[in-house]
Amino acid sequence: MSSTPPARRLRLGMPRRMFSQVLLMQVAIAAGVAVLATGLFLAPLSDQLDDQAMRRALAIAQTTAAQPQLADELTSTRPSADGPVQAEAERIREASGAEYVVVMDMHGVRWSHTNPAEIGGRVSTDPQQALAGREVMEIDDGTLGRSARGKVPLRDADGDIVGAVSVGIEYDSVRARLIHAIPGLFAYAGGAMAVGALAAYLISRRVQRQTRDLAFSDIAGLLAEREAMLHGIREGVVALDREGRIRLLNDEARRLLGLGDEAVGQSLGTALGEGRTADVLAGTVNGTDLLTVRGQRVLVANRMPTDDGGAVATLRDRTELEQLGRELDSTRGLIDALRAQDHEHANRMHTLLGLLELEMFDDAVEFVGEVVGDHRATAEQITEKIHDPLLAALLVGKATVAAERAVALTVSDRTQFPDRLIDARGLVTIVGNLVDNALDAVAGTLHARVEVELRAEGRTAVLKVRDTGPGIPAGQRELIFTDGWSTKEPPAHRGRGIGLSLVRRLAERQGGSAQVAQAEGGGAEFTIVLPEALAEPAPTSGPEADPARERSATTTKEEPR
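That's the histidine kinase sequence above. Prediction below.
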């Protein structure tokens, strides 16, 4: 048993391709405009032709009534087919091409007509307006059918009205002129439509190239997916036009750059201000995975030019990764310090064991006292001058690392810093970065030395870090504070050139400054000024001992002798 498949239904509708859709819509618009223009032209054309026919009839009637002998012949003869009025009227009708020329008396009786049998009878239309002295133009039906008419009064030599003249233009001739004009109009309309179709084809081809022949539904889907992707990814996306103005910011870019909706349409300099971030996004700084600092965030930027002369830049937040990298550096430094201490401790234990085996007990006691005293002296020297526990602990640890690297880390005699910091973590970051850079600068040099000075001037904190390294050339003293600048190879886990930039930004965030100059005797001297970094001192009723000094005195023990 065989079955025939059902016939496929013919589906009529818009084509799927954009080229075909645009072409079809534009051709339909051009055709509609041509038809509408033709209709709008034909409608007044009919009225114009009617008006022209009535005016022509009126002009023939006026010319007929102006014949001087016609009024005399009307009053001196009787109406007849071979009378002088009929002869004159027929002469004028044949000469002008009118359908009829009717001359009537005051009673509306015809003295002339195209059909001689109608002479002597009353006219079929009302002649009262013309007999009353008014000129009339109209389109009306009479014994000869529909015609365009003109009626005027007929006056004698004295100006008295003795009758009227009615002239008719066959209405079919008016309609024929209108119909005759239609083919020409349609020819012009067809030409305009052909030009419109050609223009529509060229525009559609251009749209096809620009949209890659995608359907409208595909473009709408792509736009929806683009919006979802841009606002869903965890990377910042910034699109720029050929003039360097921001034309798109996704949600992550707004968060990372700290911008709002008002930034769209602004230039990078206006929206971001002068700085490395604006230079990286504008393409002034070239490269891949460029590091920049925006506020407290460390960003990695990549920029890709577009075909229209603009560019798209992506931003990744590396703040947490950078913090982890610095913590890893600190951990490694601590491990190295512990390893060095362990090695040094083993050597000292071996020395102590030898003194005991040789029964040199007094020398053993003196040796232990010297070892303990050295460590205690360093810690006490720092805590006596720096009362903030976080800063003191940081410098004690850095002193241990410096000693292992054969660098003398000291605290200046001018240092005196109270425990009244408002943002202790920020100053710890600044001190840590500067001390690390100083240790790297003096590593491997003779008589390597790093000195830290911390002072409180009212509520202002002043930090100075000096080293005996090679120093910073005068031409690079501002450049070293820019993002990504470094003279050292980057470690595997993160980039270089962020520390000093963060130092300056932390200082400027508090309204302060970060500068570098040449230290006395060579090397570099970094100066950080932080206004309003210290809280107001608590009011006291009388002299009290410094709590740090009391803690120091309490924990101090008599050294073994």
